[in-house]
Amino acid sequence: MPTIIERVSPQGAVSYQVKVRVRGYPPANATFKTKTAAKQWGQKVKAEMREDKYFPAAKAKKRTVADLIDCYLEHLAKTNPSRHGDVKSILDWWKGELGHIVLAYPHCLHAYHLLHKIRHASDKCF
Description:
The chain is of the alpha+beta class. The chain has helices at residues 35-50, 57-60, 65-79, 81-98, 108-125, and strands at 3-8, 14-20, 28-32. The chain folds into two domains: 3-54; 65-125, no CATH class. Strands 1-2-3 form a three-stranded antiparallel beta sheet, with helices on one face. β2 and β3 (28-32) form a beta hairpin. α3 packs antiparallel against α4.
């Protein structure tokens, strides 16, 4: 069950803050004017998380696979610089192939077409 906390502002206005926590997902928070709306949103988000349908769309629409790869490479350069060079060349290839994909809209067809392309290229090598 989502956690609902009643908040009272200094002016006396009541609002309800909802926190939804499901293992494997970042916590989701929202504030509502009515307790009913807070309960409904909490139940909806928790169900979406359990069905693997929850993804904060606003942030995801702004990020691409290339952003994700760049972030990882930056982290790797700081934490394991000796491995950075090897991994960078591989991830640069993936970035060129899938970097344009927005994280909010991943689709299995992207992976299918890429695997087909790799398989076709490897046939030429043998």
